[in-house]
Amino acid sequence: MCVCSGAEPLNPEQSRVWGPGLDASITLPVRYFYIQAADSAGRPLSSSPAGSKSFKVTIKALSNKEYIRIHVPDPLDRNDGSFLMRYRMYGSAMEGLLIEVLHQDKHVAQSPYILKGPVYHEYCVCPEEDPEIWLQTLSCPSKESQISNDFAPFSSIDLKRMLEEVPQRFAEHRGAIVHYTILNNQIYRRSLGKYTDFKMFSDEILQSLARKVRLPDVEFYINVGDWPVEHRKVNDTPGPLPMISWCGSTDSRDIILPTYDITHSTLETLRGVTNDLLSIQGHTGPSWDNKTEQAFFRGRDSREERLQLVRMSKKYPDLLDAGITGYFFFREMENQLGKAPLVGFFDFFKYKYQVNVDGTVAAYRFPYLMLGDSLVLKQSSSYYEHFYSALKPGKHYIPIKRNLGDLIEKIRWAKENDEEVKKIAKEGQTLARELLQPQRLYCYYYKVFQTYAKRQTSRPEVRDNMELVPQPDDNTTICKCHRKKSKDEL
């Protein structure tokens, strides 16, 4: 079966294949690359039939003497003429990999692709000693505006002051602070408070980074709770402390990392059961013209405006389908508003318009909604994630008032301006695909710690009661690293 745009059939030779999964030196939990179908004139096709099996991809060790288990699912059809190919390695290919991309038994673009080894799997401990080489290999942006903004109040970081103030100000009251020191690419930590179980998420990304690149020597505190914690203003005396969190707000000064949700889902891609930033791209529902012309919301009762959505849905059922799937904060409202059955996230995209309302903080579903091909109607909010500053309201999504007072009006406007709305949805999706690539998350994490380390005014130390966070010690970590160990590690 071919992918067609009009009457012009897919041409394998003119189609394009590219992405980090074709670069042996880029190690990610799941490697991925893209296939863009094109016609005989090299014009990219703009549509593809749902469930198309246009492309077949085989990936195997270059050497017959190496047996490596590689999970290679079918390419994901992104419904716009492009396909996303993912594969996860469960061993390292020392000689390299052979990747064939075929269309009806004909090679596509420059297939077969030979990745000369070594090609390392996720759990191989083989960090690049020169961070600049690693950053360049991943095509990391030279500047991230959110990082620049977050560090603007902190031209220098006094570790002694942090040691004195953080436990007293944040650990005792918040109970969700984890103190880390990274020395010689080894990770040490101590938990400060009762509610630090989510340290497993910060542990796993730090371990993953340390396997790939030599991290700077750095000492910092991560807030593993929901809310940002540092509310001092820049001109206050004493001034704010550089606390690291997963969510920011306009009235706080925390330094923001990608959320634990998108980070963990990226690490667990192709072996977890939760949504991830890659799989969502191949499950965006029917084509635009076949989507239901309603706004849609399902979620817990973690904010009063979500209850308001349900009331609006009852009043305007032709415009809005909203329901609460679980009650915790407003249990007394369940009898009045009812409890909606759970809906699989991929089924959200059967609807043209998605309503994004905060939970306890920013709604962590927002990046997944942006990767779909529905229009996102986003509640105005003081909370933000690491990538929000790159988005422009009216260009990438439609803003709605905090109190949702203009939501019905905006849905009606969307229905009356279908072509413009379709363009906004596409612009948002295109930007989200760029910003939320797994390799960009790794770039972002590294840049935060690199920027932090440069501002430290004293050398990080392994403090009392800190414990080593070791790399996994099992057969999944076995690999033969070709890099020479640094003097610090000998």
UniProtKB/TrEMBL annotation:
Catalytic reaction equation(s): L-seryl-[EGF-like domain protein] + UDP-alpha-D-xylose = 3-O-(beta-D-xylosyl)-L-seryl-[EGF-like domain protein] + UDP + H(+); L-seryl-[EGF-like domain protein] + UDP-alpha-D-glucose = 3-O-(beta-D-glucosyl)-L-seryl-[EGF-like domain protein] + UDP + H(+)
Family (UniProt): Belongs to the KDELC family.
Pathway entry: Protein modification
Lipoprotein as UniProt keyword: no
Domain Glycosyl transferase CAP10 residues, every copy: 214-459
Ranges occupied by Filamin repeats: 7-117
InterPro entries in alphabetical order: CAP10, Filamin/ABP280_repeat-like, Filamin/ABP280_rpt, Ig-like_fold, Ig_E-set, O-Glucosyltr/Glycosyltrsf_90
UniProt protein name: Glycosyl transferase CAP10 domain-containing protein
Native organism: Staurois parvus
Keywords from the named record: Endoplasmic reticulum, Glycoprotein, Glycosyltransferase, Signal, Transferase
SMART domains to which the protein is assigned, alphabetical: CAP10, IG_FLMN
